[in-house]
């Protein structure tokens, strides 16, 4: 399954730092994190994560 654009209900996700979305029957999950989560990871020099912006709540 391929998505061209993600959109979320701001009121549902604005208090969440990490959440996942079940995509299909092949047990595929997409994990989404907040900017706050990303900043904590980067400020602690943690590795192994790749961040790709898929949604901007301010636009």
Strand order of the largest sheet: 1-2
- Unreliable stretches (pLDDT < 50, length at least 5) are none
Shape summary: globular
End-to-end C-alpha gap: 25 Å
| Strand composition percent | 15-25%
User: If you compute it from the alpha carbons, what radius of gyration comes out, rounded to the nearest whole angstrom?
Assistant: 13 Å
H/E element sequence: HEEH
Sheet having the most strands? 2 strands, antiparallel
Strand tally, please? 2
Task: Summarize the topology.
Blueprint lengths: L9 H4 L4 E5 L6 E5 L1 H9 L16
Account of the 3D structure:
The chain has 59 residues and is α+β, with helices and mostly antiparallel strands. It has two helices and two strands; from the N terminus they run H-E-E-H. Strands 1-2 form a two-stranded antiparallel ribbon. The mean pLDDT is 85.
